[in-house]
Design a protein that fits this description.
This protein is of the alpha+beta class. Strand 4 and strand 5 form a beta hairpin. It starts with a strand and ends with a strand.
Length: about 220
């Protein structure tokens, strides 16, 4: 894109002509961290009994996970709720049927290849729902900088090519703006029950992450 400063609102019409280019880069990397949200749900006509059952099963899951991953593993309870469940018969009147208690346990681990094993162990200990599974990077700074470098080189190469084709020279860089995105977690959501997980191990594929970077370059040109 080549135009004079008058093409930009609020600038001096007598300003120098500019070239504006856009550079992009995408680097594909393997994740090195997984975040798993495992749930324990229990139901009972009594709110107190539902809570007691849930606490016992959640404690069993936490114990099993710490035995598997070690006592220093990043395992935390991140959510708890208990609420009534109603049915709506044909007469339209809501009727309280039971109470549901839910406990959500979050596991963060660098042992990517053991994610399936972690899910299976939690399930055998009493977990019966799964809120989600995401693969991420522990530290994306180095990869991010590399992507930005490639995007910047591409934007400058485009500016050089345009200037050469038009017979003008690049005098100076006026502005460089980063417009890209960071890494997006690779989500893998799957629900499970104790019956469905008992027969075989849970297969989990980590996949890859795309680190995207983009820059917009504005340079002043002269004849």
């Amino acid at each position: 894109e080549v135009r004079g400063q008058e093409g930009r609102a609020g600038t001096d019409p007598s300003g120098p002509p500019v070239i504006r280019t856009h550079g992009e880069a995408v680097l594909t990397v393997e994740p090195d961290r997984a975040e798993i949200q495992i749930g324990v749900e229990t139901e009972d006509p009594s709110a107190q009994v539902a809570a007691q059952k849930n606490a016992a099963r959640a404690d069993a899951v936490l114990k099993a996970l710490h035995e598997l991953l070690g006592h220093d593993a990043d395992i935390k309870t991140v959510g708890y709720s208990i609420h009534p469940v109603y049915s709506t018969p044909r007469d339209g009147r809501n009727t309280l049927t039971h109470y549901k208690a839910a406990n959500v346990i979050r596991v963060k681990t660098d042992q990517i290849k053991r994610v399936g094993e972690i899910i299976d162990r939690a399930n055998r200990a009493g977990a019966n729902t799964m809120g989600g599974l995401e693969f991420t990077l522990k530290d994306d700074a180095a990869v991010r900088l590399k992507a930005l470098e490639q995007a910047s080189r591409q934007a400058r190469a485009k500016a050089d090519a345009i200037a050469s084709a038009l017979g003008v020279k690049i005098k100076r860089i006026l502005q460089v703006e980063e417009t890209g995105e960071g890494p997006r977690p690779y989500p893998s959501h799957r629900g499970f029950s104790s019956l469905s997980m008992a027969a075989e191990a849970t297969p989990v594929e980590a996949g890859t992450l795309d680190i995207r970077a983009a820059v917009t370059l504005t340079v002043e040109v002269t004849q």
